[in-house]
Design goal:
The chain is of the alpha/beta class. It has eight helices and twelve strands. It has two domains: 124 residues, Response regulator (Rossmann fold, 3-Layer(aba) Sandwich), CATH 3.40.50; 96 residues, Arc Repressor Mutant, subunit A. The radius of gyration is 24 Å and the shape is elongated. The structure holds calcium ion. Calcium ion (CA) binds next to loops.
Length: 229
Amino acid sequence: MSKILIIEDEEAIAELEKDYLELSGFEVEVEDNGTTGLARALSEDFDLFILDLMLPGIDGFEICRQIRDKKNTPILMVSARKDDIDKIRGLGLGADDYITKPFSPSELVARVKAHLARYERLIGDGLPQNDVIEIRGLKIDKTARRVWVNDEEKTLTTKEFDLLTFLASNPNHVYTKDELFKEIWDMESVGDIATVTVHIKKIREKIEYDSSKPQYIETIWGVGYRFKI
Ligand code: CA
């Protein structure tokens, strides 16, 4: 079920929009001010945003700009004034559609459906997506088993790749060398926890700007390592 966030301070309008969208089978959340609306828009997964222009806290222009910085989710902007709509267009904020108040609820629903369908076609296109981790310039393609730092590809051995990927897939979790050895190497394999230290050192030489001040894999003295996020 598609999930929609309405950011609208006029309760009657928000309720009307919500009722009609829910009747059409959408899951709908409402925020009545710009600050909490923006925070939720950025931190949660929604399939479409309906955004009022004049809002307490942060206005719709700024919310639109900040959402577009981070996400391609469709944004439908709502305003009471036709010239506001022209302004939004002029600013090139990346809104997908504009609707002026008063509007008919069925028109709103029709536009929402059209944008969701278009967006689903867009993201559904092409081949299945590779499983990729991206953190501060470091990109790990788990499917293709390739690593880049600031778009420069780095060559890692199988175990280096497995170790880095394991740590990066479990960020902020501190692992002992013993745990890492058991996770990445077979229990029966020849070697000991010093192998882990050697591999961490090699990974750092490949991915860190300065391996004496690691940005990604942090040493927790007396315990082990963790991937910082
Ligand atoms: Ca308003």
